[in-house]
């Protein structure tokens, strides 16, 4: 299991929340903050899996 700690910035853009990891510039979005964070976790895991 991968453990990663980073700084996350969350911004609201109209109907969407955008979560960006500042250490590696990976971003994702969701309709709620929770969705954006879950999508970002998945994107970070896929990034480091490769």
Relevant terms:
single chain, 50 residues, alpha+beta, 3-stranded antiparallel sheet, 1 helix, 3 strands, 34% helix, elongated
Number of strands: 3
Largest β sheet strand count, sense and barrel closure: 3 strands, antiparallel
Could you give the order of strands across the largest sheet? 1-2-3
Helical segment count: 1
Mean pLDDT, rounded to whole units?
94
Which class best fits the helix and strand makeup?
A: alpha+beta
Low-confidence stretches: none
Topology, element by element:
Blueprint: E1 8-13, E2 16-21, E3 26-30, H1 33-49
Antiparallel strand pairs: 1-2, 2-3
Tell me what the structure shows:
- The protein has 1 helix and 3 strands.
- The mean pLDDT is 94.
- The chain is 34% helix and 34% strand.
- By secondary structure, the protein is of the alpha+beta class.
- It is elongated.
- A 3-stranded antiparallel beta sheet has the order 1-2-3, with helices on one face.
Give me a quick take on this structure.
The protein is an alpha+beta fold and 50 residues long. The chain has one helix spanning 33-49; strands at 8-13, 16-21, 26-30.
